[in-house]
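Recap for those who missed Tuesday's class. We walked through two folding examples back to back. For each one, the amino acid string is listed first and its predicted structure tokens come directly after. Nothing is annotated here on purpose, so try labeling regions yourself before you check the end of the notes.
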Amino acid sequence: MDLFSLQGDASVRSARPDSFEPDAMSLQEALREIRHPLYLQKKDGALVPHLGDAAGLASFAGYAPACLPENLGDPSFCRELGIRYPYLGGSMAKGISSAAMAEELGRAGMLGFFGAAGLPIAKVAETADRLKASLGDIPYGFNLIHSPHEPELEKELAELYIRKGVRIIEASAFLGLTLPLVRYRLHGISRAADGSIVTPNRIVAKVSREELAAKFFAPAPEKLLRALVENGSITPEQAELAAHVPLAQDVTAEADSGGHTDNRPAMALFPTILSLAARLERQYGYDCRLRVGLGGGISTPASCAAAFAMGAAYVMTGSVNQACVESGTSDTVRALLAGTRQADVTMAPAADMFEMGVTVQVLKRGTMFPMRAAKLYEIYRAYGSIDEIPAAEREKLEKTMFLAPLEDIWRGTRDYFLKRDPSQVERSERDPKHKMALVFRWYLGMGAHWAKDGVENRKMDYQVWCGPAMGAFNEWAAGTFLETPAERRIVTVALNILHGAAHLTRANFLRAQGIDLRQEEIAPQPLDIAQIKEYLC
């Protein structure tokens, strides 16, 4: 039996008592019992928790209602997506957000995105078939990352998702709206018998700037609608319907996350995007609600509770999931992540947007990748071609980073792009600086592969996408069973974060009534999966 099915199971729900003896538990233990109202009585100068109803209590000094994790976010979000908990596992490229993670989260009543970016189309197609077979009607999603240098790849992925019946995608790293993205969203749009507009495909957009959020919250641009009508992707009638629905009903405000990020503070970013959503919902007169979730920095009960307190419809986790046993990375990386502190991350050039100077947040502890990648960008800016690089500098690159002559690296890179995107080779033959960029991008891209595959002799070149949330989780898990990488399972971590958030929300009800609470009295501690099931069901 999975957690998603436990909600209506009476035999499981009766596993814990409905009434509790006063004086038999601490306040911390009482806060954990999130299904039961909590009353505080004064007794001999102390506050004594009482769980259950208020019958028989002459008076009480404080009250906290029951607080179920499934009620923390926007109930319409869970209802429309068909999930129990307002909790999404965000996508991490190259399958680090694995099919196993999507399966485990889905069966537990959450939603996981498979990290399709950087993988061969055949592998993405294979995974789509796997998830459809293993999960059936249980929701799951795939990532569509913006590919400014490979637009055909973005188009091919969008078409694959349409063919395979993938109904939810996470759109990430977009600088603007693209035709494949709009094509995916509007495929199958129609008007139901009751007059409502049906859009089978859903986009959850991940953004860190309000101007981009505004584009996703708006209807598809008329220019792109005309292009889709002209190429036969949609009919004129469907284009007319598209003017009445947002491109993305759900937008994740991405704060200080791993990978592509603008390092925005969540406390400033989220309220701004939330206010924008309310304004645009009124402006466009939608029949649906525009919703905002929060990602980037979510890895502990406290950060999760804070997100929901600000009004998040859902939360999205990332870095903390990479450290779980189901992730598609190596045990070596999991061990590195388990020892990470908040200051052990930095920014480095991005492989997919190298020429544009775009950076990603990565782990710096235990690897020289950030420093070496920054050096490559410095050389790229300084010279017009590989041949212009001074001999001593070039020799150093070949001996320390590439471990081969640059011309050998180019031959392999050229063969790769002849199969994947021949236009890149054609451009490099006209533009030697582009050739240099492709060679340097080889190192950046391989850094992620070496890390994912655990290549031991390349440990100093590992590219590990990671945000400060990883350090926050490690601090919270220190001294508990979750300190050990082998114990970090995706559902155990997720439910601890959600249950702990509900626990803290109850504590904050008490604080709002003027009750003085010490941290050691209220701090949620990691619980094993058996305990979590008892408290949640």
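Example two. Treat it independently of the first, because the proteins are unrelated.
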Amino acid sequence: MSGLVSLYLGVALVLPVALMLAWGAVVLLSRMGFPLAARQSLRVGRGVLVLALLLPLLVMGARALSPAGPLFSFERSVARRAERLPAAVWTAGAGVSTPAPRGAVPVPSHVWTVLGLGWLLGAGLFIGRALVGHGRLLRRLESLPRVRGVGRVAVVLGEAGMPAFSAWFPHWEARPSAWVVIPPVLLEDAEALRLTVLHELQHHRQRDTHLALARLVFTGVFFWHPAAHALSRWLASLQELACDEVLVSSGRVQAQAYARCLLQAALRLPGAPPVPAGATGMSHPTQRRIHMLFEPCPRRVHAVPALLGALALFLLPVAVLAQGVTKGRAMTQAEAQALAQKSQPQGDLPVVVDAKVVEQLNRLVGTDKGRAFMKRALANLATHRAALSAGLRAKGLPEGLLAVAVVESAVTNMPETDGQPSLAPGMRGAGVWMFIPETARRYGLEVSAAKDDRLDVERETRAAASLLSELHARYDDWRLALAAYNQGEKKVDLALVEGGSRDVSALIEAGHLNDYVATVQAGLLIVRNPNLLD
């Protein structure tokens, strides 16, 4: 459900930008002396509607399928959100304030419920009223005198004062699905009658009547959005122009006779009611339509694909930003640094916030996979915390090193063959701390077909504490010790030589070390501030 809400809001944010860009591009090309044909403008309008609907969906899919870190290859499906945590699991530094960053305050559930019910009521009333009126229109058309039939299109004589229009209904039984309505006054003018019928039949040929129903539903879904109504009106106008252009450019009608027909229609029905919902028609002729009849029809073969491609490039970052807004605004480095300082227990493992830590933090908080992983990790940490903390305290190590178990295994005591994901790159291990066999044996753990001490949480925690203690004693820097825990001492020693620096942030940025340290630091921030996952 949250994904659908995010998609809906993403489309709502992209839609006005798409409309303004498309309309502006068409107008700009015209003023620069490169006008598009009416049919091309109609294809641009329809293409923009498709882009506004499709791009947020593609971005949402990309966000869902992208890993929240270096996940193992077997975990590439969309992870479902875990259940909401019952309470925070971090109690170290009990009086430390851990406020959420600006913009991250969760909306109460009852507010979403009220908004959802309001949307359902509004959209249901809008679409329901339009569809009921559309059904009544069908019954009304069936009662009108039929003039003739053109293929599967029924041409009927409308009531006095009724404008000319076309309508399409889903086909069932033996009823006609396509209709053309002509005003009774046209029976006095054979030429005007012929031109009007040709115009309305053209609406059926270019599927305007089918898309009119789709626009009706789309406008109903976004009944509150001015851009949805504006786009619908623009498409309806372009459909009329496209019909006029096709009839004149194909030679089926003469421009002078067609212009006369439009003018006579305006004079005969000056106060004609609007075209019924879900129908299309020539009820509102304009000066622009008449002028267009006498202008040369531009032919630019690749104009529409090129323009839509350019619009897609402009709209893609807008769709990405829209998804970011609907999913929750990304945290800045300054906000992460303030959060790290306020939630830092005295004497515990420090969090050094750099660009990589912020990147990993936003991936863990802002993607479905990241959130699901971290929620599962915090829930498991509540179960194993006592055993893990006791092993760390026995070696005098900071409790913040629990974040290593969070990143390695989501605090899951699993064998090597387990299919659950890990955020740690490199060779897969086993247990909560993900020891590989060689390292496990070096610290006195038995790893054989008969027994695997890595699945003994207390013994493995003592071994992990010994390893982390030795690494910190060797490098006198917790971030270098964490890097060595994942990549090994040889890799870290080589990175120090090649990088010429002990600054882990610089070594990661230069590619000498992977992102493991940044992921652990980001995980520790979430462990200390579980409200980030709300």
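Answers for example two:
Confidence is low (pLDDT under 50) at residues 67-106.
Residues 453 and 459 are 7 Å apart (CA to CA).
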